[in-house]
Specification:
38% helix, 9 helices, single chain, seven-stranded mixed β-sheet, alpha/beta, 7 strands, 241 residues, Rossmann fold
Length: 241
């Protein structure tokens, strides 16, 4: 999967003026989660007159790679010549915050993610000191994700084929090595550009641990796809500020 432009389609017959406008569009960079890809955002809509929407391509993390090092490798995909916003789900929200240490986006919208280490569930925090996941084959971890997701986030039922497909297409070693990045990650402090949106029915990163800026009633960990009717107005408001 390559970095893809998913928000704007243009005719080859466009005038030079149109191409000039396209070149000046603000950019929204999309960062999917550990078990998803850019399809997690496909139910959301952005103003194509104002934004060019680009999905970030995730290479496989190196063995033992830190979130900071991984973010460094994603930087070449970011065009900083024009204003841009980061929007990330779960792991994608963490990566986008890490990139915010190094770059200067207009804002970072972290959906179903964490902004403080205390928001991370005990399983992930424990893996920093007792990394049992390293003993497990990547394929087994991926299989476990496919079993656990419908149990933890039952609202995926309406979009079950999509979520099955995203997990099926995900690189097993990516899923495994992302655990280590999450477990060791220390979120940046005092990030005034970060907007944290979280659902109160998130069983993967429970709301009781979250200090979210905006809580979505009934929103799950995968609400970026399953609760677009609730999430879209919130995103529109922040993007218009």
């Amino acid at each position: 999967m390559r970095s893809s432009r998913v928000g704007v389609l243009m005719s080859m017959a466009c005038s030079p003026w149109c191409f000039a406008c396209f070149a000046q569009l603000e950019r929204i960079y999309l960062f999917p989660g550990q078990g998803s890809d850019e399809r997690i955002f496909q139910g959301l809509h952005f103003d194509s007159v104002r934004y060019e929407v680009i999905a970030i391509d995730y290479p496989r993390p190196h063995r033992g790679e830190s979130m900071s090092s991984y973010a460094d490798r994603l930087q070449p995909q970011i065009d900083t010549a024009l204003p841009y916003t980061f929007m990330g789900v779960s792991l994608g929200g963490m990566i986008s915050q890490e990139l915010c240490r190094k770059l200067d986006p207009e804002q970072v919208i972290a959906i179903s993610s964490i902004t403080e280490r205390q928001e991370l569930p005990p399983f992930y925090r424990s893996q920093r000191w007792l990394p049992f996941y390293r003993l497990m084959p990547a394929g087994i971890i991926k299989m476990g994700s496919r079993i656990a997701q419908p149990l933890f986030e039952p609202d995926r039922k309406a979009f079950a084929p999509l979520f099955r497909s995203m997990l099926k297409d995900k690189d097993a070693k990516f899923i495994k090595r992302a655990i280590g990045m999450i477990a060791a990650w220390q979120p940046p402090e005092h990030q005034n550009k970060v907007i944290h949106i979280h659902g109160d029915d998130d069983h993967t990163l429970p709301i009781r641990r979250s200090g979210a800026d905006h809580v979505v009633t009934g929103g799950s960990h995968i609400m970026a796809r399953t609760c677009t009717n609730l999430l879209q107005p919130i995103l529109n408001r922040y993007l218009s500020e």
